[in-house]
Amino acid sequence: MKAPRESRSGTTLLTVRDLTMHFQVGSGWVRAVDGVSFELRRGETLGVVGESGSGKTSLGYALLRLLPSNGRILRGSIVFDGTDLVPLPDDELRRLRWTRVAMIFQNAMSALNPVFRVGDQIVDAIRHHTGASRAVARERAGALFELVGLSRTRLRGYPHEFSGGMKQRAMIALALSCEPDLVIADEPTTALDVVAQGQVLRQIKDLQRDLDLAMVFVSHDISVVAEICKDVAVMYAGELVEYGAAEHLLTEPRHPYTMALLRSFPSVRGPQKTLLSVPGSPPDLVRPPSGCRFHPRCPFAQQICREVSPPPVATAGAGWARCHFTEEIRRLGQDPLDVVAAVTP
Amino acid sequence: MKTALEVKDLYKHYPVRGSLLGALGVGKRRVVHAVDGISFAIEQGEILGLVGESGCGKTTTGKLVTRLEAPTGGSILFQGRDIAGLSQPQLRTVRQDLQIIFQDPYDSLDPRYTVEMAVQEPLRAAGIAAAERRRRVEETLDMVELRPARMFMSRYPHELSGGQRQRVAIARAMIVRPTFVIADEPVSMLDVSIRAGLLGLMRKWNRELGVSFLFITHDLGVARYMSNRIVVMYLGRIVETGETEAIIGRPKHPYTQMLIAAVPDPDPRNRRPEQELRGEVASAIDPPSGCHFHPRCPIAQAICAVEDPALRQLRDGRLAACHFAE
């Protein structure tokens, strides 16, 4: 591995402003990512949480301009280390992907070609992106395997000889092979058993710290995000609805959707609470609801919520929530949803 | 209290296919010990949680209990009758009372069937008249909160969300009014935000109609939320069992401790401990000697590699299979 990079922790690496990516289907344009803005500093981790259909995966892909053929970025900028990726020519963007920004996908099982040895696939990827000799690339692959907690001898193995957790580790090794500054991880542990998930999460956390990696971590599972992210963004119907430092957002959420996500989770260590689910299902993003997009499912919704899209309101720890009633909800106390659950049948 | 189901010394061994030497009858016949001598009982109206990682034998146990698979050995007493050796025609009378809900709502519904056709199928098999079937489908869809029921009856699976599909699967199990249900990871393919609704539905079904459940899951949080008692399995064997709060709050077997330590929690105040999560589930073909868990166990001693620990009762009444549990 090369010498530890000069630490520039804390400086801004990625600035996303008003990013809007829609894709065309038979019935119109799906507003998958709509006016998303956030900032990510070097060495820090942002978790993006939301349900299926919230646009979180589309956001992850849009950051790398990996768009479906029917998708288009309509507005906004993605400034990565001083360069806006939105207008960047394709060949320059391709050079940047993998070497400086890498991705870890959910389904590692299918990302590896079953008929080639795992090590050869990684060696080829390293050579392709760095032009290293076979011997150098092989040495690097070995070092990467050890870094992610796999034995070097595993390089000779085939994908079917790897368990789910091992494949996901191999994918992480692959993502790290060119020492990227930023990693975008899409549900990297969702397909794993709880123990393997715990192991992989710990590995990611250690690597992130040791390599000073910045990371966007996309998941439907807020507990997984809580485990490794410094900041959390909650996505609903293509928009970010709440953003903040994990320790604030997860303990004093101000958006009713965030609250509902937190209350849908059975805790193994905390006190037992009755779980609450978000009623209904995510809206059709071809014709999202007027005003606040969450209003049809929100227990607190009033007339204004149907009419006016709420602007971000500042919350604790430099966070914000897009809700008209953050202050009223705060005054309801620790668990406002209990109040609601008590009055609704 | 009446026992709904009792499993005694249940075994399921699968021969390993594809071994040339095995096919020629040369060398040792290799066998997967999927379920390796387990015993447990479920009281009427109780929810028993069956937990463990992939490959621990929990899904096989569910299939044996519903007799979708035939056991290699042991007995399955359902309503006092041993169903372990019954033939498929003999099982037909039992099936009405013993339903199973699978993990994958995308796989368990036939895409060519409307919701009404799918849900009424078990009634049709039982020879119930069309008008009565329709009435019961409507009533059952309402119970699983697919409302208005009439609107959902004419829908096809592709028009439903994952959560709605799983509600249809639950309705199909519910419609025959079983006394016992096996739920095999019924929410693990669904988004966290909609799991709570389905778990609540099954709890209500249990509470209001007294239906007993064998609830199979790898998620300790879900097991805690759903069950009165928990069975923890590792490589085909029970390693710990007892009251849910005792098992979750004060696990005694090192494997149970590891499973609990692996569960993430959204509340920073409930962060998981810095406990080492070691290794992976070993092969059930050649399981480790002695205690199956010893290669991954943080407190293993020499004896653990040699002597298989018996499942024995501890002071608080739970059972644990560890030489050092007390």
Mean pLDDT, all residues of chain A: 88
Query: What class, by secondary structure content of chain A?
Result: alpha/beta
Low-confidence residue ranges of chain B: none
Write down the overall geometry of chain B.
globular
Order of helices and strands of chain B: EHEEHEEHEHHHHEHEHEEHHEE
Find the count of extended strands of chain A (DSSP E, 2+ residues).
12
Taking the alpha carbons of the first and last residues of chain A, their distance comes to 61 Å
The radius of gyration over CA of chain A amounts to 21 Å
Give me the oligomer status. Answer: heterodimer
Major beta sheet, strand line-up of chain B: 6-7-8-3-9-10-12-11
With strands numbered from the N-terminus, the spatial order across the biggest sheet of chain A is 6-7-8-3-9-10-12-11
Shape of chain A: globular
Strand proportion of chain A, as a percent range, falls in 15-25%
Specify the biggest β-sheet of chain A: 8 strands, mixed
Overview of this protein structure:
The complex is a heterodimer of chains A (345) and B (326). By secondary structure, chain A is α/β, with parallel strands linked by helices. Chain A has helices at 56-63, 90-99, 108-111, 118-130, 134-147, 164-175, 194-211, 222-228, 246-249, 256-263, 303-307, 326-331, 336-343; strands spanning 12-25, 28-41, 45-49, 71-80, 83-84, 101-104, 182-186, 214-219, 231-236, 239-245, 313-315, 319-321. Chain A has an 8-stranded mixed beta sheet with strand order 6-7-8-3-9-10-12-11, with helices on both faces. In chain A, strands 2-1-4-5 form a 4-stranded antiparallel beta sheet, covered by helices on one side. In chain A, helix 5 crosses helix 6 (164-175). The radius of gyration of chain A is 21 Å and the shape is globular. Chain B has 11 helices and 12 strands. With 326 residues, chain B is an alpha/beta fold. The mean pLDDT of chain B is 90. In chain B, helix 4 crosses helix 5, helix 4 (115-125) packs parallel to helix 7 and helix 7 (162-174) packs parallel to helix 8. Chain B starts with a strand and ends in a 6-residue tail after the last strand. Chain B has an 8-stranded mixed beta sheet, with helices on both faces. The A-B interface holds A 51-52, 163-166, 193-199, 201-202, 220-227, 246-247, 250-251, 260-270, 272, 275-279, 281 and B 53-54, 161-164, 191-200, 218-222, 224-225, 248, 258-272, 277, 280.
